[in-house]
Amino acid sequence: MNETKQIKGKGSLKGCSTLIAIFFGISLISNLIPETKDDFFRDAELNYDTNNYELALTKVNEAIQLDSTNSDYYELRGKILHELQDTIQSNQDFNKTLALAKSDTEKDARIRKMIEWDLNHGEEEKARQLLSKEIQLYKEGSLKHIEVIDYAARKYLTIGDTIEAIRLYDLLSNEYVTTGKYSNKAGILYTNIKKKNKAISEFKKAVDAAPENDIFLYNLGIAYLNSKNKRQAKMYFKKSMDFGNTNACHEYRELTARIRYYKRSRCCDGTTSSSTGRGSCSHHGGVCGIENVPYKEYTISCY
């Protein structure tokens, strides 16, 4: 019995040795296979994400040595160098990514990624420089060119540059489209910065382009109301209301309300009484005057 057990033990030991040999053989073979550029890039991304910037830089440099035409590699190295405070080389790498982009579509995607990265890192001036490149993409007058200008205007608003956003919306409304959309956007921005006459002018362009757009009509009514021109405001609120705009209806309802008055007694102790006949304020020192109190009588209802 003991002999049998001993023989089995040797067999098990032999099998275990075989597995160990296979494992080390596989490990040796895998170590002999060289890393690819994608391997280096993935390692660089992983180390960048874990804030191990020095090792990330080493890995991405290996990837670039194997492929110096991949813009993703330069973008990652630019981010790594930014974290290492090498701003000169970082900027050069970011510019390299744009130089490698062959079409406007590629440049558009690359610029937008870089803009988002700059804004997330407080690099507003760099974002501005990229936006100036963004609006030069695509053929003028094309739908894509209009779209990038609209995108740039929205990003300028994110930065806080309302004037540049208005300039781009004015450009779009004057030269590229006749829907009134961008005139309306410019009008809203002029309203926000208290440029009342300019706001009216832009909203009028929007209404001229789309006279049945209830929002444009309502905004023009608000612009006139801000300028104390109630007659014009009322007219455009009415038009907007007729196209179903509830907000315009409420504004029109207020402007067309009739002012009525009711009388009340002012008691000598400072209180008031709705009664104006004899005996009013009898417990408050008598009547010391009569007041005309205004109230609104509405002529329409809004649902």
Major beta sheet, specifics?
A: 3 strands, antiparallel
Q: Catalogue the unreliable spans.
A: 1-10, 25-31
Cα-atom radius of gyration: 37 Å
Average pLDDT reading: 86
Our estimate of the beta-strand percent is 5-15%
**CATH-defined architecture of the domain at 41-100:** Alpha Horseshoe
Number of helices: 14
What is the CATH topology of the domain at 41-100?
Answer: Serine Threonine Protein Phosphatase 5, Tetratricopeptide repeat
List the helices and strands and how they pair.
Elements lengths: L1 H31 L4 H13 L3 H14 L4 H13 L3 H14 L3 H17 L3 H11 L8 H17 L2 H14 L5 H12 L3 H14 L4 H13 L3 H13 L3 H10 L2 E10 L4 E2 L13 E11 L6
Antiparallel strand pairs: 1-2, 1-3
Helix pairs in contact: 2-3, 3-4, 4-5, 6-7, 7-8, 8-9, 9-10, 10-11, 11-12, 12-13, 13-14
Give the gist of this structure:
This protein has 14 helices and three strands.
Structure, described:
This protein is mainly α and 303 residues long. Strands 2-1-3 form a 3-stranded antiparallel sheet, with no helix packed on it. Helix 6 packs antiparallel against helix 7 and helix 13 runs antiparallel to helix 14. The longest helix has 31 residues. It is elongated, with a radius of gyration of 37 Å. The N terminus is likely disordered.
